Amino acid sequence: MVLMLKGLQGPYKDRYFVLKAGMTIGRKAGDILLEDDPMVSSLHERIIGRGDGRFMLEDAGSQNQFIVNGLQVPKVDLNEGVTFQVGQSVFEV
Question: How far apart are CA 74 and CA 29, in angstroms?
Fold first, then answer.
């Protein structure tokens, strides 16, 4: 099964990204660039492959982490239906 991220809010609204181990999200570096968002760190988070075809989203040492269900968290399993916010952008698996 191929998992994808869909942009729900922000500059990538209605765009899709196939999840791959090693992908990154950031303001100055990354596969998904959020250049105009001051709440996003230069390298904000990375997608880690779990070896069983599943993925985890992990904070890369950012000041603001990311938000899942209204809480700032350092990591989350990326299961189908999970929604997370990075700065002003929202994505759904």
Answer: 19
Q: CA dihedral defined by 28, 34, 39, 44, rounded to 10 degrees?
A: -60
Q: Roughly how many angstroms between the first and final C-alpha of the chain, as a whole number?
A: 12
Residue with the two structure tokens 């880690």: 48
* pLDDT by position in tens, the chain (length 93): 788 999 999 999 999 999 999 999 999 988 999 999 998 999 999 999 988 889 999 999 888 889 998 899 999 999 999 999 999 999 999
- Listed in sequence order, the residues at least 6 apart from 33 whose beta carbon sits closer than 8 Å to its beta carbon are 26, 27
The pTM score is 0.91
Question: 40, exposed or middle or buried, with CB in 10 Å at 0-12, 13-18, 19+?
Answer: buried
